[in-house]
Design a protein that fits this description.
The chain is mainly β. The chain has a single domain, classed as Immunoglobulin-like (Sandwich). The protein has no helices and 9 strands. It has a 4-stranded antiparallel β-sheet, with no helix packed on it. The chain has a 3-stranded antiparallel β-sheet with strand order 2-3-7, with no helix packed on it. A hairpin with a 2-residue loop joins strand 2 and strand 3.
Amino acid sequence: MLNAPKPENISIANNIINFNQPITITAPGKTVKTIKADLVYFEMTPENDMCIPCNKDAATYGHFTNGTNSLQWAASTPQSPLNLSIATLQLTPCCSANFKWCIRYKIEFTDCTTCNKLVCYEKKKEGCEKGGDHK
């Protein structure tokens, strides 16, 4: 069984969503081979169209900060919580936006069986009026 509860603190700073995802694996008699996180959905809804700068190349945001939609940890290196960072589109100063994304966590065991869980998240970035990050 794979348990991935919602993280307590999700932050947005410098066009990066950061959070620590706790993971608990309960599989008596099984040995973990790999843990994989796939970013399968990303949506950003700005407060208005003027919040999005002219350069809105989709290849530059909505991915993990390594530039891909997938991260993997070997059994010898997995840690809980998993530290995850997602690049976001730079908004014009003082704009608010709502971010939604889903990550599928997949555990592969040494006997080639797998277990996975889809976790969806949501975070609002407040504009200047509310004291939010406006970088």
